[in-house]
Design brief:
Blueprint: H1 2-23, H2 27-52, H3 56-87
C-alpha cells in the first residue's frame, strides 16, 4: 500500500516539474525542468515495475534514462553553440 502512495507522490512532483517547464523564465530552466520530468517518469516506471514484479520494465527504464540524458546533453550543446553564434 505504501508503494501506491509513493507513485502518487511522484506524480505530484512530476506536475511541479511541468510547471517549471511551462513557466521557466529562461531556456535553461526549461531544459532543467525537462530533465527533471524525464527523471520522475523514470522513477515512476521503476516503482510500477517493482510493485507489479515486471522485470522487463527495468530494462525500459534504463533505456529511457539513457535517452533522457543524451537528449539533455545534445540540447544543451545545441543551445550553447547557438548562443555562441549569435554573439559573433
Amino acid at each position: 500500500m505504501i508503494s501506491v502512495y509513493v507513485l502518487w507522490t511522484l506524480v505530484g512532483y512530476l506536475t511541479v516539474c511541468m510547471t517549471r517547464v511551462i513557466k521557466g523564465p529562461t531556456v535553461w530552466d526549461r531544459l532543467l525542468g525537462l530533465s527533471l520530468v524525464s527523471t520522475k517518469v523514470n522513477l515512476i516506471i521503476i516503482v510500477y515495475a517493482s510493485i507489479n514484479g515486471l522485470a522487463y520494465l527495468l530494462d525500459v527504464a534504463i533505456v529511457y534514462a539513457l535517452l533522457g540524458f543524451i537528449g539533455t546533453v545534445f540540447t544543451a550543446t545545441f543551445l550553447r553553440e547557438r548562443a555562441k553564434g549569435d554573439k559573433a
